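Q: How would the C-alpha cells look for this protein?
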Amino acid sequence: MQWSDYTNGERIKILRGRDVNQVALAEMTGLSIATIQKAEQDKQLSLNTLMQIADALGVDTSVVLGQQAPRRAMVQSDRTMLRTLSQTVHDTAAGLLPDSVAADEAEAIQAAIDRCWRRYWKGHYTQAGAFVVPILTQAAAYLREQPVGGQGEAWGLIADTYRLAAYVANLMGARDLAYAAIGHAQQAAEQSGDELQPALVASGRAWVYLRDARLDDALHLAEKAAADIEPRFSTATMEQLTVYGSHINFAAVVASRKDDKDLVKGYLSQATATGARMGTEHRARGTLYGPVTADTQAVGIAVALGQTGKALDLIRDIPEAQLAVLTDAARNRYAMDKAMAQADARLWDASLDTLEQALVAAPVWARHQALPSVIVQKVGRASTARVRRVSALLGVRPGFDSGFAHATSKTAL
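A: Here is the predicted structure in C-alpha cell form.
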C-alpha cells in the first residue's frame, strides 16, 4: 500500500505513532482533543489544523496530505530534530544569530564537534543532529567575534559543523537539507585556509550525490577530492593518511556503483597501500581509517560489483577480533555487507544469522539503513519462517515494500 493510498486521518495516526496519543498531540498543537479526533476520523481538517498538526509532528503539510511520503524509519524525534536542524542551518547561513549568544573558545567548540562525530559514528544520528544545533550556533558566534583577517580557524569550525549537518540529513533522507548544508560547508571551507577542508567537503558532497543516484557527479567529485590531497607517503602525517585513505576508498566505493571494475581495482590498491602504510586505525577529521577499514570496505565493494565469491574470501580473511577497532557504524555496515554476500551465495541461514545479530545489537542504527530490507527481501525467497522474526526487527512484513523508502544495494550506503 502506497503512502498516498491512506486517508489524511490515517496518515496523521501513522505519523504520531505509538509514542504520541491524541491527548499528547492536542497539547503539542494547542488544539482540542475533539479537533484531533475529527481530523483523524476524516471528518474535518481545516488549513489551520493541518498546519499545526504538521508542525507538531515535524513534517511538511504535503506529507500529511499524501503528496510526499515520509521515510519508513522516521519517528517523531527524527522529524523534530530535522526541523530544528534545518532552521539552524538556514538561519546561521543567513547571519541570523541572537546578539545574546556568547561564544565558547575554539578548543571547546572543537571538542564538542569531536563528541558529535563520535555520536554519529556510533549510529546515533538523531542525537548527533540535535548536538549540531548548539554547536553551529556557537561556531557562528565565535566567527562573529573574530577580527577580519583572523577568521580562518572559525570558518574551519563552521565548515566541520555544516558537514556534520549534511551527513546527518543525507543519511536520514532529508536531501534538500543535505545539499544546503554541504553548500554552506563548502563556502566556509574555502575561507578557512585549511588545505584539507575543501577536500573533506567535496567528498561529503560526493556522498550526497551518491545517495541521490547522481553517480557521474559523485565519481567526479570523489576522484578530485582524493587527488587534491594525495600525500607523499614518505613524509605524510597520520592525519593526512587518514583523510586520504578514507577519500580514495570512497572513490573506489563510487566507482563500484558505476560498475567500473578497472577503476575500482586502481583505487582499492591505493586504499590498501595507505592502510598498510598506517599500520593501525587512526581517527582524524571526523573519520577513522586504517588497514581493517580498508579490508572491510573491500567486502562491500565486492558485493556491489556482484563478486560474491571474492567477497566471501575476503570475509574469511578478516578475523572477528579485528572488527573491535572499527566505529560502531562501520562494524554494522560490514555486517550488512557480509549478510548480503551470504544471501547472494544462497547461504540463507548464515545470512539471517548475521543480519539478526546486527539488528539486535544496533536497532537505532538499523532504522536508518536501506540494506537490511533489501537483504530480507532477497532471503525471503527461501520461504524460511525465520524471515518473519528478522522482518519484525525491521518493522516490515516479509516481502513488503512500504513505498516510504525505496533503495537498492547500489545506492544504499
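Confidence is low (pLDDT under 50) at residues 399-412.

The chain has 21 helices and two strands.

Upvote if useful.
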